[in-house]
Design goal:
With 561 residues, the chain is of the alpha+beta class. It has a domain of 118 residues. It has seven helices and 27 strands. The strands form seven sheets. Strands 1-27-26-25 form a four-stranded antiparallel β-sheet. About 3% of the residues have low confidence.
Length: 561
């Protein structure tokens, strides 16, 4: 209880007591007859009481005033409290409203939470379904990919089968067209024999056309012979005594012709279509010839080196006795005369023999390569000799005896004609490159011109090898152990009979071939050149009727010209 309230209540108490005492005295005075002493006592008491009352009343009045002040304060506070209470009630109402709103919001939040949970559950279900769908889609995708891969493989197999079928058909068609090319060449030659030259030329060009278009061999016998007959780009010179032409060499510089030597001691000059006999002496059995722009050097089997000036014999140099087979140029001023058991160096300036060497074995042939001399023996072995005469054994390039050798510096290759007819191709680093199979007897001569290797042989055939088509067959040789790989070759149209090809020499697109029956044959070795010549001479192509007769309805008609 507050202190001021307590004091006010005490003052009220004493005031009440005083009033009661006053009432009691008045009642006592009226009702009883008392003594003076008693009255005095009573008066004294009353006075005391009055004094006490006055004192107490002053105190009570003071307390009362204080109480009034406090009551005023309390009333003010009560009013304030009432205001506060009303504010509190309003605030409480607001709070209740806010609580209700909060409850409503909570209820809505709970509802939303329930909805969210439901949505989450639904989303989870949808996510699970989506995952299942994704898995099924992935499985379907993998299945589709497998199906696509299988379909692509099937399509690829189909393409391969189609390509294989197309290739097989192409091969078949190509072989058919190549066969057709040979057939047209044969028919062309028959037409020339029956003096049907115009049709013969048309068929000859058609033979080349199909061989060239279908990547055949335009150097095949039938096509080449037909072109030769169509162009007449060949000429045959016959030595009167029909002696064997053992060696032939083309003229130097711009001169068109050759010099040939025979086993009957004849030295023949052919120039500008005319033949001149420079020497005829039965004492000489010439085996090889070499020439420059001023002199001709003819070497006999017995070792006689005859020097001529394109008109007559100037001198004869007697070499050491042996059987000589070949003349080689060592350098600008030196010749090498090769015999079976002797090698002789001859100086062109001093016109004297400057050196001779006796090999350890019988020599079959020799060739100059990269400033060194390669010597081939009849037992199938070979050695390398430098300018100082030092001999180094070489590894064997091929089995058999080398009978003719040619080094082509521009090709970086060494060509070896073998006794069994093969031509072995060796690189300059002494590695096997290829083996050319075509001849069936000893190769007697090799010459090179215009990307073309020409070979003569005892088998009565001269073969042409087109070097750009020559491929490296080392892998095939090592794998298959084959004897050789055939390549482009031909038999010239006018090389027939029983004559052996003993020597050959080329210049540009022309070859000169010496035969064993005394003939010297000059002919073109370039099929592209001859095909152009034939085309320039024909005035038309095959008519439809001729096409059906010589080619047939299975081949679409082509107007050649």
């Amino acid at each position: 209880m507050p202190e001021k309230l307590r004091r006010a209540m005490i003052s009220q108490f004493w005031l009440l007591k005083t009033n009661r005492i006053q009432s009691f005295i008045l009642m006592t005075w009226k009702g009883f007859n008392i003594s003076i002493m008693t009255v005095v006592a009573i008066v004294a008491v009353a006075i005391a009481v009055l004094v006490a009352y006055s004192i107490g009343r002053g105190v009570l009045q003071s307390n009362y005033d204080e109480l009034l002040d406090e009551i005023k304060d309390l009333k003010a506070k009560e009013k304030e409290s009432a205001v506060v209470k009303r504010v509190s009630q309003q605030m409480e109402a607001i709070a209740y409203d806010q609580m209700n709103l909060s409850n409503q919001q909570r209820d809505r939040a709970e509802e939303q939470s329930r909805l969210a949970e439901a949505n989450a559950a639904k989303a989870e279900e949808q996510s699970r379904l989506a995952q299942d769908n994704a898995q099924r889609a992935q499985q379907q995708s993998l299945l589709a990919e497998r199906n696509a891969a299988e379909a692509e493989k099937a399509a690829d197999d189909a393409r391969k089968q189609r390509d294989a079928a197309t290739y097989a058909k192409s091969i078949s068609d190509t072989l058919s067209f190549r066969t057709l090319s040979r057939s047209l060449g044969t028919t062309s030659m028959a037409k020339f024999e029956s003096n049907e030259d115009e049709l013969g030329r048309i068929l000859a060009y058609s033979s080349w056309y199909f061989a060239d278009k279908y990547k055949g061999n335009p150097y095949q016998k039938e096509t080449f012979k037909a072109l030769m007959l169509a162009t007449k780009e060949f000429k045959v010179y016959t030595i009167p005594r029909r002696s064997a032409v053992n060696s032939v060499m083309v003229l130097k510089g711009q001169r068109d012709g050759c010099v040939a030597v025979t086993n009957y001691g004849e030295v023949v000059l052919i120039e500008d279509g005319k033949m001149h006999m420079l020497l005829q002496d039965n004492n000489f059995d010439f085996r090889s010839v070499w020439l420059n722009e001023r002199y001709v050097y003819a070497l006999s089997y017995a070792g006689d080196l005859c020097v001529l000036d394109y008109e007559k014999l100037l001198t004869t140099v007697k070499l050491p006795s042996d059987h000589y087979v070949k003349i080689l140029q060592i350098d600008a001023s030196t010749l090498l005369c090769v015999a079976h058991r002797t090698l002789v160096w001859y100086d062109l300036k001093t016109k004297n023999v400057i050196n001779s060497v006796i090999p350890s074995k019988k020599v079959s042939t020799a060739v100059r390569r990269n400033n060194k001399l390669l010597i081939f023996y009849t037992d199938g072995t070979y050695v390398e000799m430098d300018d100082a005469g030092n001999v180094t054994p070489m590894k064997k390039f091929a089995e058999g005896v080398v009978t003719s050798a040619l080094h082509v510096e521009s090709e970086g290759k060494l060509f070896l004609g073998m006794k069994d007819g093969d031509i072995v191709v060796i690189t300059d680093d002494d590695n096997f490159f290829a083996s050319l199979s075509g001849h069936i007897a000893q190769v007697t001569g090799l010459t090179y011109s215009n990307n073309t290797l020409v070979s003569s042989c005892y088998d009565r055939e001269m073969l042409i090898w087109y070097l750009p088509k020559l491929k490296d067959t080392r892998a095939e040789r090592n794998k298959n152990k084959s004897k050789g790989t055939p390549t482009e070759w031909l038999v010239p149209a006018n090389y027939d009979g029983n004559a052996w090809g003993l020597s050959v020499s080329t210049k540009g697109i022309w070859a000169w071939l010496g035969l064993s029956d005394g003939r010297i044959v000059r002919h073109c070795i370039s099929v592209p050149y001859m095909s152009k010549q034939v085309y320039s001479k024909i005035k038309r192509g095959l008519t439809m009727e001729e096409w059906m007769q010589y080619i047939g309805s299975n081949v679409e008609y082509v107007k050649i010209k």
